[in-house]
Structures are given as structure tokens and as C-alpha cells.
Amino acid sequence: MLKKKSGYVIAILGATGAVGKETLEILEERKFPLSSLRLFASKRSAGVELSCQGRDWKVEELTPAASFHGVDIALVSATDTISKEYGQRLAAAGVIVIDDSGVFRMDSDVPLVVPEVNAAALRLLPRGIVSIPNCTTTPLVMALKPLLDTAGIKRVVVTTFQSVSGTGAAAMDELMTQTKDLLAFRDAKTEVYPYQIAFNLLPHIGSFGDNGDCSEEVKIARETRKILDAPELLVTATTVRVPVLRCHSEAVNVELYRPLKANDARAALAAMPGVLVYDDPNKKLYPMPLDATGKDEVYIGRVREDASVANGLNLWLVSDNLRKGAALNAVQIAECLVTR
């Protein structure tokens, strides 16, 4: 575990990516106790300077020869290949690794953490690695946790509406370019996605398995069970890519073990740290990506009882996938570690 210090050396692998840049902003906003910052990215970004906490930090090229001497915590938000290559190497050198990829999430000796839900899992780090969940799983478990504690959960059915920023900067550029081209009556070119994303929906995220589920759908189910420590929980998901730049939305149907009125569900959700209940049908008040962009909270609305099943509940949630879905969650884990 970390030794108590006045400031810590933090390394960010993937510093010039969308999540890396968001991480720098969050470290500054939350006044994380930094003594130094090491930024790593590909060769084309080496030498670029990025600002954080009143200083400019030069980006270093990430190579096998890179030294991580003196680093306390490494925030890894790059590719699965980078996580595989550097995650265990950093941990073996005594660096605590907070990894954003799917490489270690389901390893039994690596905690999968959303601090508001299962911070206690950070007490033991046998491999020196902590995983953060998929950017759709994180807001989902934050909505499910208070309902689980209040009435118990038998089954979860979730449909996600995921923004293109979940794929990366190139996908955001593709959406913007396609939109401009189509509005100018030009053909849309596809590179990042198999089909046009502008003015379209793609019910396909990740790779297809033999049973027809996408890998993203499998991740959500497995990760939800692990984080909530509910191995028997029934979870099924359908994941959809939508032409939105930022923020993931989810339609969630929950079958509870005990009855729960909509107002009691709202109260339980409102008491959950990091959750903002944004729900007034009479005023057409409900969460939208425009509301949650750049915000830390998970916005929840459209809370209502489902008469089609015993003890059923419907809700709608929106979360900024680059913040709480990735960068913020990683920084919050680092904060927990330095506090302990």
C-alpha cells in the first residue's frame, strides 16, 4: 500500500487521449495531492506539453525502456495491449496501477471498483492492480446499489445508448464529418464504424459471440455481478451506439424481491453518493446527455413502477462516460488509496 505523503508522483499512460486529458482536468479540479506528474503517450505526442495544477508537464514517449522509478500510482487509459504490457510490469515495480481496460477486470485477485459502491474492495491489492469498470457498468451499479440494499434485486434488463466518444476521438471526428457531409448532400464515408453513425443507430458494440451477444453486453452483466458481489444476479443487456458526442444513457428495468413505490425508490437513489435524481414528469424534467456533459454525477429520472411484472421498476440514467465512466472514477480510487 501507499505510504502517507504530502504529495504523490502520478503517471498517466495515454495522457493525450480523451480520457487522459479529462484526467488532467479532474486532478486539477479536485486538487489531488501531486508532487510530480509523468505523462506518457505514443511517439507522435512526445514533447507536447500539457497543463495541470499550474504547471506544464512534457509528454514522454511510452517505450519498453521508459523508467517509472519513483512513481506511486499509474493511471492507465490506453489500449488493451498497453495494459497487458505495462500493467503487471508497473505493479511488479511497486507502482499501484489503476487500469481502465478490460484486461484485468474479471481476474479474481484484482478488485473492480466504483468507490461509491465498493470502496472496501481496495483494502486488499494482492497484485497491486485495481480495475475500473466499463463506462456503462459504472453508472448502472450506482443506480442498482441503493435499490439492492432497499428491496433486493432479482433481475436487471438494461438497454444502453452509448455516445461515440466511448470509441475515441476518431469516432467523434467521424460523426462530425459525416453530419457535415450529409447536410451538404454528400455521401458519408465510414472508417471507424462498419456503418454510417450520423442520423443512425448501431445495435452492436464490441464483437459478437456464438450466442449473438455483443462483448459489451457480456461485460456489463459480468462486471455488475462482481461489483455488487451478487454472483446469482440475473442481468441481460442490449448495447446501442448512438449519434451523440458525449454521455451514455441507459434504460433500466429492475425486478425487485420486495415492493418499492416510485417515490421510495427516488428517495433511496437520491441518498446515494454521486447520484442526482432529476425527475419531474409534470415539468418534463428528465436527464439528457446535454445535462450530464462535463458533470460528475449520474443523473437519474423517469423513475416509475412497472405493472407488467411483480415488484418491477423502470428508470432512465445518463452519465458522462469520459468523467464518471473513466477518468473521474480512476481519480476517486487514487483519492481513496492516498487517504487510507
Order of helices and strands: EHEEEEHEHEHEHHEEHEHEEH
Strand content: 15-25%
Q: Number of domains in the coordinates?
A: 2
List the strand order in the largest sheet: 3-4-2-1-5-6-7
**What is CATH's topology name of the largest domain?**
Dihydrodipicolinate Reductase, domain 2
Overall CATH class of the largest domain: Alpha Beta
Pairing-aware structural class of the strands and helices?
A: alpha/beta
Estimate percent helicity: 25-40%
Give the low-confidence spans: none
Main sheet? Answer: 7 strands, mixed
* CATH hierarchy: architecture of the largest domain: 2-Layer Sandwich
Provide a count of the helices.
9
Number of DSSP strand runs: 13
Give the termini distance in whole angstroms: 9 Å
CATH superfamily of the largest domain: Dihydrodipicolinate Reductase, domain 2
Radius of gyration: 20 Å
Whole-number mean pLDDT: 96
Shape: globular
